[in-house]
Amino acid sequence: MATRVLILGNGLIGASIGLALKNLASFEGEVIGWDANPAESAKALEIGALDRVLAASDEAFAPYSADIYVLATPVLPILDWLKRLAPVLHEGQLVTDVGSTKAEICALADKLYNGPGHAAFLPGHPMAGKESGGAALAEASLFQRATWLFTPIAEPTPIEAEWRALVTAFGANVRDIDPEQHDEVCAWVSHLPQMLSTALAALLVDTFASDPAGMAAVEAIGGRALRETTRLGASPYSMWRDIAMTNTDNIAATLLALEQRLQHLRENLRTPELREEFSTANRFRAKS
Amino acid sequence: MATRVLILGNGLIGASIGLALKNLASFEGEVIGWDANPAESAKALEIGALDRVLAASDEAFAPYSADIYVLATPVLPILDWLKRLAPVLHEGQLVTDVGSTKAEICALADKLYNGPGHAAFLPGHPMAGKESGGAALAEASLFQRATWLFTPIAEPTPIEAEWRALVTAFGANVRDIDPEQHDEVCAWVSHLPQMLSTALAALLVDTFASDPAGMAAVEAIGGRALRETTRLGASPYSMWRDIAMTNTDNIAATLLALEQRLQHLRENLRTPELREEFSTANRFRAKS
What we know:
The structure is a homodimer.
Chain A: E1 4-8, H1 12-23, E2 30-34, H2 38-46, E3 52-53, E4 68-71, H3 75-85, E5 94-97, H4 103-112, E6 120-122, E7 124-126, E8 147-150, H5 158-169, E9 173-176, H6 179-207, H7 212-221, H8 224-230, H9 237-246, H10 248-266, H11 273-282
Parallel strand pairs in A: 1-2, 1-4, 2-3, 4-5, 5-6, 8-9
Antiparallel strand pairs in A: 7-8
Helix pairs in contact in A: 3-4, 6-10
Pfam family, one (chains A, B): PDH_C
GO molecular function, one term (chains A, B): prephenate dehydrogenase (NADP+) activity
GO biological process, one term (chains A, B): tyrosine biosynthetic process
């Protein structure tokens, strides 16, 4: 049984995992936190997501002590941690992550983990979050009814089964998927909606930059449609840079397809083809 | 004081106006309904939105009897009703509407209304609705805290003041705006988000049409981001055809601008320009 979990990255997701471990999964071991930004780990400790915090300068020593390492940072730092942890961990220990893209992470981990004498790595991705980050917004219930994807790259181990059981106790719906398919599907359901919201919000800002009365009208008149399609425009670059860097081709393909679809719609605003577009769209139902 | 309101079009908006008149504005006169689809007016009567329903075949006689005529249909039928009502109404009566675009409506009404001996016309547009229509979804509270725009084209009259007071009693925030500016701003805050949702939902349907497992993954993995950016994809063509027909140039301009912005973002997924896009988008705040 795991007696110590180390969460590397104590922002919204990392701190919510700490809260869920302690409040939903009845994990009785020790939950330790580390964050490059000491204010985040201090906040996570304050809200009860952690039992103990390692100093930012402790990172060199962090690897040696836990049964389960949860990498809860953006994707590029996850890649760094994978490289740094591999040489100092051993069989029986588990590294798992919450990274938003999986193909690059899995390709790297496949070389460094899961072999004889090595720690296990279970790639994960909880489909949960908020448009703003930080431990201050963490909630134990963040993962309830959310899908928590795993993209396993090796045979299951006992410690991996323990982590899966903990995640299930968070209230998440666990689903396994191939890493390449993960990145393709996430481009459609997550990365494209994000880029769309960012583009629309940025376009509105620039369009009305020299027209404060127009922007005031936009803000006064805009309702739920505008709010929902621009909400993600508030998302932080820091996280999305890594997603764009590690899923570029899939995101570019979905963007190009949408550009072409918008052009088609624009050229048919007054033709019967508009009916076909609405009719096709009417057949789509997102998970409610 | 108005003693009789005739609502032409008894779908979601028309029936909600009936409910709001009777339950929120304490309107003590008679609320009469007419709809080209008798099932809609029957449903509106059933839920208490109307006191009386004119038969669909009564439409030739409907014009003679009310103080206030509320045109609660899509835009093209509103244009038809404006032409049919003008010759049979007289000074002291008010026609108002809820049409989603205003420039064409105002241009037509300016020739037929508001002159000596003619009925008054007050163009209106409540920024409220749902992605599905019909009297069955009507609510008295639909307009509470929503913005109700007017685009007046003539000097105010006493009967117009009465209608404004009733709308205020619905809980709506009344705001006057120029008809041309209305259509330009609504292209940004309403029509563009709609076309975007329609394009994205239609694209997903076509992309995964031959890949049921992929569509199942999209539905299972998609969360709030996908749900919010595709919600309006369920909107009916019947209403949007008229909006696209009567605000074509503004909608095409916003679509083209967004296509270009998405292309720019796509070409900069791995450059520092992505940071600029996120930073600019972060400055946008829709009304919460």
